[in-house]
Each structure stands twice: as C-alpha cells, then as structure tokens.
Design goal:
The protein has two helices and no strands. It is mainly α and about 110 residues long. It has a domain of about 70 residues. The chain is flat. The longest helix is centred in the C-terminal third of the chain and has 37 residues.
Length: about 110
C-alpha cells in the first residue's frame, strides 16, 4: 500500500511543515537613541584623521622608498611621525580649550 499523497504546499510555507511552524514571533521594538550629531562628528573626525595618517605612512613611505631608497624612507617616516606628534599636540590643546570653555559656560 502506498501512503496518501501529501497536500500541495501553500504559498510561503515549505512542503511537509505545519502552517504556523515557520513564523517568527513579532520582535519588540528596540529602544533607539536619538541621533547625536556631536558624537557622530567626533567619531567621523577621528576616522578621517587616522585614515589620513595611515595613507600618509603607507603610500608616502612607499613612494619615498621607491624613488629615493631605504635611508630616505626612514628619514621620511621620522618626519611624518614628527608631523603626527605636532598634530596630536595641537589637537589636544584645542580639545582642552574647548572642554575648559564649556565648563566655564555651564557654571
């Protein structure tokens, strides 16, 4: 004896599964924080600066090495590092002044 034919598959369900077995439970809406433009600007600024210096080290160092050799590339990396330190110093000073100005305004 052969088994009875299975019923045709309904749209959206796989054959051989129960009708409600493939449904997901409705998700609760997640609590979303509002968009913080200051936080976005800070993170984007950091990403851009880091990307700039990575490109400067990799591409600039490679080009100096290719055109002028190893000794010049090492000197170039030293100069790029000096520029990075100067940038970090200026950035720290500006950040500190901004923090101080906001603190004074809040009082």
């Amino acid at each position: 004896m052969s088994s009875p034919p299975s019923p045709p598959a309904q749209h959206g369900t796989a054959q051989g599964t129960e009708q409600g077995a493939g449904r997901r439970k409705p998700e609760r809406p997640r609590k979303r924080r509002g968009f913080d433009a200051r936080r976005y600007a800070r993170t984007q600024e950091v990403r851009l600066v880091v990307g700039f210096f990575v490109l400067l080290y990799l591409v600039g160092g490679a080009l100096i090495w290719w055109f002028y050799g190893r000794a010049a590339a090492l000197l170039g990396l030293g100069c790029i590092s000096g520029g990075l330190l100067f940038f970090l110093l200026v950035y720290a000073m500006v950040t500190l002044i901004g923090w101080w100005a906001n603190r004074v305004l809040e009082e």
